[in-house]
Amino acid sequence: MTSPIHNFSEIGKLKTVLLKRPGHEIENFTPDMMPRLLFDDIPYLPKAQEEHDYFANTLRDNGVEVLYLEKLAAEALDAGGAELKDKFLEQMLTESGYATGATHDALKEYLASMNNQDMVNKIMEGIRKNEIDFVPTDLQSMAEDGDYEFYMDPMPNLYFTRDPSACIGEGLSINHMTFAARQRESLFNQIIIEHHPRFANQGVHVWRDRNHSTRIEGGDELVLNDHVMAIGVSQRTSADAIEDIARNLFKDSNYDTVIAISIPHNHAMMHLDTVFTMINYDQFTVHPGILGEGGHIDTYTLTPGQGEGEIHIQHKTDLKETLKDALHLDDLDLIPTGNGDPIIAGREQWNDGSNTLAIAPGVVVTYNRNYVSNELLRQHGLKVLEVISSELSRGRGGPRCMSCPIVREDLTK
Ligand SMILES: NC(=O)NCCC[C@H](N)C(=O)O
């Protein structure tokens, strides 16, 4: 059986990718909601959609099949029939704070009356109180958030499809995410994997599901080759989750090495892929801001230990040496974001200058606004496909964050 998921590297020719076209959810909020929703500004939707279509077309023009999360989710619900729709709605309402009660019932009736695509879109966009003809009478609605405009918050971060799940080999992780603003997102990925005809019952391994209290996000999960992963210890991914997924991979897959890389825990560098990406067999982007004195950074190489489920950990502080050892390379090229200039690097990293998406070895998609980093990549021999980025960048994610590779060709060397 050919697996519908096949992703054994960061750089193999990209064949199939999962995107989410930004919808009303990216403008359905006010400035005071931005910190909680993990946004730094409110994008102008028509322009953001134009930019996203440009990104999708750039991928298509390079032979990539583009799948859309919102469409797959509705198709999965169509395939699962009324029973699945009910189960999904119950779960989504519970995770939105309405396990039972009159508000639960009113929201469920409202959503259940829609066809699956409209319902999926509506859940993603958020539900305002003025949309439903219903006056809540429970204490929480009356006493705690009577003035709050929403029953269900929008999910503006959905266009960063990288994070709620991550394809690794012929399986994936479906992630328990860190902040409430994003935790419901991976429910869409779960129903797609379990019920969409393209993925269900095809032997796809779930290396780690979303039913955990420890946290991991796809922006931290880098598939370096067919047996080595790098995973960020970051604001969004905890060390215990890394040990957990490493244990599962060591047990049931060919993965035998997980390099945990400690990065600063802050909003600008929330995931490893905002500061470090693999773009060729021996080339990486690195934001100089993650390197300490003497270029040092804490890395922990996890490999299977002697006993069942045991893990051996080796601590190193030289990123280049760690990567050379794990990838069996004589040398490698770490390309500094913004050419290492502290102002340019800080500015371009903020706008995702390190967040490159490789669509083949040495071929990357980047935001056009990061012109210093882009020029440097070209000087280092890479082919750079620039995409427009005024509005999309306001959500703090770039081309790697906006894409979840599902199928890549295997590497030839
Ligand atoms: N992989 C990534 O770095 N994704 C970008 C996520 C940005 C989003 N506003 C967030 O804070 O989660």
TrEMBL record:
Q: Which residues cross the membrane?
A: none
**What keywords were assigned to this record?**
Arginine metabolism, Cytoplasm, Hydrolase
Per UniProt, the enzyme's principal EC class comes to: hydrolase
Q: Output the superkingdom of the source species.
A: Bacteria
**Per its UniProt record, what Pfam families does this chain match?**
ADI (PF02274)
Query: Known EC number(s)?
Result: 3.5.3.6
Q: Which is one GO molecular function term here?
A: arginine deiminase activity
A GO term (biological process) for this protein? Answer: L-arginine deiminase pathway
The answer to whether the entry has keyword Cell inner membrane is no
Q: Which reaction does it catalyse?
A: L-arginine + H2O = L-citrulline + NH4(+)
Cellular component GO terms held in the UniProt record: cytoplasm
Subcellular location, record wording: Cytoplasm
State the pathway, as annotated in the record. Amino-acid degradation; L-arginine degradation via ADI pathway; carbamoyl phosphate from L-arginine: step 1/2
Q: Which residues does UniProt mark as catalytic?
A: 401
- NCBIfam families associated with the record: arcA (TIGR01078), PRK01388.1 (NF002381)
Family note: Belongs to the arginine deiminase family.
Could you tell me which PANTHER family the record lists for this protein? ARGININE DEIMINASE (PTHR47271)
Name of the featured protein? Arginine deiminase
Q: Source species, please? A: Lentilactobacillus curieae
